[in-house]
Structure formats: C-alpha cells, structure tokens
Amino acid sequence: MGHIGINRYAIRPLEWIAAALLFAMMVLTFLDVVGRYVFSAPIFGAAEMIQYLLMGCVFSALGKASTTNAHIAVELISPALEAKFPRAFRILVGLFSAWGLLLISKQLFSLAVEAVQQGRVSVVLEWPLAAIAFPSAVLCLVAALLLPFADRDVR
After folding, report:
1. Would you put residue 84 in left (φ > 0), alpha (ψ -120 to 50) or beta?
2. Cα dihedral sign for 78, 79, 83, 87?
3. What is the spatial distance between Cα 107 and Cα 124, in angstroms, rounded to a whole number?
4. Which residues pair with residue 121 across a beta bridge?
5. Largest CA distance in the chain
6. How many domains does the chain have?
7. Is residue 154 part of a domain?
8. Residues linked to residue 128 through DSSP beta bridges, in sequence order
9. Cβ atoms of residues 51 and 135 within 8 Å
C-alpha cells in the first residue's frame, strides 16, 4: 500500500474526524455564547466539552501533520543540516518524531489505565477521563505509525 492507499484509508478518515470535532466545537461555542448573552442561560459544562473537543481535534490532525511535514517549526539550524545531509537528516527527524509520539502515546495509555483503575472523572461534567485519554493515545500511536509514509518534501 503506497502513499495513495495511506491517504485514502488512514489520513482521510483522520481529516474527517478532526473536521467534525472542529465543527462541533464551533457549534457548541456559538450556542453557549448565544445562550449566555441572549437568554442568560449558558450551556452547563460547555468549557469542559470544548476542551475535550479541542484535544480530540488536535490528536486527530496529528497524523496528517506528521505525514505532510506540516508541524510548526523553528528552522534555525535544520535547513543547513538538511542541505548537507538530506537522507540522514530525514531519517533522524523521522526517528526522533516517532520516538516522541510513541512516548506521548505510552504516557496517555498509562493515564487512561490509571484513570480507569481509580475511577477518575472530569471536574464539571464528571465524565470518565479514560474516555479522552485512551482515544488520544490511540490517535498519537496512529500518527507515529504513519511517519514512515511521511512526505518530507512538502513545505
């Protein structure tokens, strides 16, 4: 399965998930503002729901950002290194990126397991914290697994 298959079966669904979560965040924010200022009745727990939606949106988009080299970066030294050692540079960046994503995923999995064991819930809505930590860990793991298919020539 080449880049086209990865795009169709992995990246495209992640884009749709991120878009749906962003849209839900927009609608919830709009309804909360209208409720708060027009009807003096804000949506209970809207801020916490928006935080969860934002986290889901970020982790859903992580796979796309990883495979298209679309992360925000400060390039002080890397252009010179990449010009001198293009292949080695790409391999090292890919390995460090994968390592970082796997580390974050491992920590999120640990957090999810701990949240289940201790019955941790969110502060306002009392939603189980594992319900956000586990999907975030999975999405971060997916982003790490997609890194070998990264298009490093995209700027």
Report:
1. alpha
2. positive
3. 24
4. 128
5. 62
6. 1
7. no
8. 121
9. no
The pTM (predicted TM-score) of the whole model is 0.83
In a domain, 55, yes or no: yes
Residue with tokens 């400060």: 74
- Crossing angle of helices 86-118 and 46-67, in 10° steps, is 150
Dihedral (Cα; 24, 12, 73, 153), 10-degree rounding: -160
Please, which residues have CB within 8 angstroms of residue 109's CB and are 6 or more apart in sequence? 133, 134, 137
* Within a domain: 155: no
Find tokens 């729901």 and name the residue: 49
73-104: per-residue pLDDT in tens?
Answer: 777 777 888 888 888 888 888 888 899 999 99
Task: Report angle CA 92, 95, 113 to the nearest 5 degrees.
Answer: 155
| Distances from the Cα of 52 to the Cα of 19, 29, 58, 149, angstroms | 14, 13, 10, 28
122 falls within a domain: yes
The reported pLDDT for the residue numbered 151 is: 65
Contact between 120 and 128 (Cβ < 8 Å): yes
Parent domain of 75: 3-149
